[in-house]
Amino acid sequence: MTPVRAAGGVVWRRSDDVVEVCVVHRPRYDDWSLPKGKLDPGEHPLTAAVREVAEEADVRGVPQVRLPPVHYLMRDGAPKVVEFWSMRAAGSGGFQPQTEVDDVRWLPLGDATGLLSYPHDVTVLGNFAALPPVTAMVGLVRHAPAGKRGTWSGPDTARPLDTAGREQAHALAELLALVRPVRLLSAAPRRCVQTLQPLAELLDRPVEVDSLFAEPAPGQDAVENALAAAGALLDLARTGTSAAVCSQGKVIPEALARLAAPTNPTGRAQDFQTAKGTGWLLAFAADRLVAASRLDGADRLTAAVS
């Protein structure tokens, strides 16, 4: 039987130096749970997670780290899978009365754990508690499809996105906007800048061109190039703000392997192979990469670093 798909969030905020998380009460079941709900038809699980948190808890959440999904049987015996994200509370709004939530509480982790009605929610909260505080988010994507190099007669840097690439760029924009980036940076090739253009229009922000995210030039050392890109990502993380970056296929895997080396000693670049029009949500604690969650507009989300 195909599982029912749902998504939700562990939404957190600070209150007098204490981390509080949000739990909701559903009178229909008289239970306390984390805010979550079923995906709408064709909806991406990350979009659904943010929407459900807003509708049930009246919170505008900014996703940070994808937590391990939860699998269980519903009351009618049907299987269900719920994808959870940790989220920073960034405002209020979006509550929908028809969600059947009649009470929302912000509680310290220990109190929330004691109140939750289901062991699987307790496990999710435990996974969240094990994370270090996230201080910055970077959405790193590879440019969307731009046809074949051999069929383009002009300079390769001028090769534009094709029809499929433009569609993927719009899908990525909707997802990247959820992390509220304040800077948009791109390698110089036209296809890279165009990949971020829908996001730039959505947020009314410029795309900054940065050569540090470009593929190595002829004669340039590929390792040094990856180290420079990794350093540029760390510089963004140190600012404590969110950003979206478009880079290229010969840069992203090695740069992420370098960043992940402290938590993934093998540093295997193949772990971070990135298809065109896909990418990663990178969560940093100061200057350390603590999580990389694969981001794909076609709905393939997996955790790579934790």
Write up this protein.
- Residues 2-129 form the Nudix hydrolase domain.
- GO terms for molecular function: 8-oxo-7,8-dihydrodeoxyguanosine triphosphate pyrophosphatase activity; bis(5'-nucleosyl)-tetraphosphatase (asymmetrical) activity.
- This protein has 306 residues and is an alpha+beta fold.
- It folds into 2 domains: 4-129, Nucleoside Triphosphate Pyrophosphohydrolase (Alpha-Beta Complex); 136-305, Rossmann fold, CATH 3.40.50.
- Helix content is 28%, strand content 32%.
- The chain contains 7 helices and 15 strands.
- The chain has helices spanning 45-57, 109-115, 119-129, 163-176, 190-203, 222-238, 252-260, and strands spanning 4-15, 18-26, 31-33, 36-38, 59-66, 70-73, 79-92, 103-108, 136-142, 183-186, 207-209, 243-247, 278-285, 288-296, 303-305.
- Strands 1, 2, 3, 4, 5, 6, 7 and 8 form an 8-stranded mixed β-sheet that branches. It has a 7-stranded mixed β-sheet with strand order 11-10-12-9-13-14-15, with helices on both faces.
- Helix 6 (222-238) crosses helix 7.
- It is elongated.
- The two termini are 30 Å apart.
